[in-house]
Amino acid sequence: SLKMAKYHLFPFGKYVCQHKGQERLTRVDEDSSLLQSRDDVSLGQGGEELAAAGPVAHWLYVVFSCIFVAPFHMFVFGCCWFVVIFIPMAKLNLEAMKWNFRAKEIDLLEGYPGPGRDVLICTYKAANICYTKYTVGGMNIMLVNLLPFVFISLFIGYCLEPIVHLSSGNNDWQGAPYIVKLFLSLFSIIPLTYYIGTAISSLSAQTDSFAAGAVLNATFGSICELIIYCSAIARKLPDLVQAGVTGSLLGVMLLLPGLAMLLGGIKYKEQRFSRSAAGVSSVLLLLSIVAAFLPTLFFINFGAHEMSCGGCSVKDADQLLDENSIGIPTDDIISNTTDLEAGFYGACQYCYTRRVDLLFDPLYQKAEHISFASAFLMPIAYAIGLWFTLKTHTHIYDFEDDDEEKGGHDAPEWSRPKCVVILCVCTLLFAALSEELLGALDPILDEYGIPEAFAGLTIIAVVPNTAEIVNAVQFSMQGNFALSLEIGSSAAVQIALIQIPILFLFSIAIHGSNPDCGSFTLVFPAMDMLAVIFSTLILTFISFEGKSNYFTGSVLLIVYVLFVVTFWFIGEQTQLEEEPHFSPIREFAERKYQYQGLNCSDSRSDVN
User: Fold this and answer.
1) Which site among 18, 203, 253, 415 is 20 to 30 Å from 369 CA-CA?
2) At the topology level of CATH, where does 138-290+371-402+413-596 sit?
3) What are 316's strand-pairing partners?
4) What is the pLDDT of residue 410?
5) Alpha carbon distance 280, 486 (integer Å)
């Protein structure tokens, strides 16, 4: 009716009532629970009555409401519910839609109703920030609201896109659709990672055996990142995986504790934590970084380097003196591979030294042996660390300052079958979404010239760790920064000691050890190693202080931003170096491989 339309324009302080004795609707106000309310309020008399409709008119009105009125109510309901703070307006629209189908006699009052009437709908506020703390089935409402993006992404990627390709005959979407797919996939990954993490926590808490719980956490704790990285390795994107691993380490050692310190420091002037517990975590973290980057350190120190030149042309000595160019004698370039006469030089516009590609360096095979040793020993070190911290020396984590009740893990009490079902379903959905994410990311990088290393350091690394970052910030704002720090340290140790060996062995299994065929190696770029080492030292130094505040958090965030900016320019420089250039070692090695007939099907490259 027109009166209800006027009510929807400004419902605050107005009452939708009916006479006592009629069928009651559920009352909704700002004191109601999130999903349902069963309390009816008997209030006053007065107002205007709406005429009861006859049977035929009633059904005509129901049909009219379904076609024209209900879709608008559902649209407004969905928008308000998704924003979360406007859930009062969402519930108001839902109750109004129920009333439209029942078509009972109601009164619309602008004043406080008298005795003899029941209040059906009443609200005073359009928004309430407290709704952000509500949970549905043990999960935060904001994460639950992101679940529809999972099915939208899967529908677009596996149903809509093949239909468009078949109808148009085009194998690729161009421009905006890739961006839409990328953001839908990113929004979809966030709730799935949280559900997987919560299921693992709830399931491991119910295990009777310490070993079973430890193995469960080690196996599934990094499953989200492993799925994405394994998909990228299968697509022959090893540089993206290396950047993602580096970004994950920087994220959990700088971004996670930095945000927790900053936001927790705004609420609390200073938070203290156990230095002994932080020391144990720091020692294990240092061990993890040494084991993960030892092959890189070996190859950087003893690996071959070459001079690469660009803009080269053949000129004689007189021309070189006139133009003041860089000259390289042709007989020193490649023996028996050129018909140039003596006295002629290759004049190049620029030259620089660079590390020889792994494929063309005989030393890589020795570094590969070190990689196998590290991949075998790192999980053993992780198991020893688990046994030490969770079984034999648990007293280290008992902090004396327990006067106040602090926030901690608040996982829902899910049954074991429910945990297993949620874990399996979310893992399968995440695997499907990872294919969509990488399928949309690759053309976007090519289209907009975004460095692959930068994308791996930010998008691929941060999004799967969003749930851990949010949890760490929440615990810090509840006065429990010690738990936030432990989340970051444990995640870094798990990345270095569990993820990296699994990725290395998985890459060997599907691509062999030939780095030119998309194989993931433990020889990282030098900047990746230095960034992780510096981050580890900074976090270790802060941990030994035993206290946190907003200043230290700001420092960690600034260092993280500086690394991100640096990796953007490193990615641009890498793209520049990949342009065609004159490289004597590469030229010789490529000729040798063409002669020997080696290709990516070879499991091992022999360059001797």
Assistant:
1) 253
2) A middle domain of Talin 1 (1.20.1420)
3) 344
4) 52
5) 10
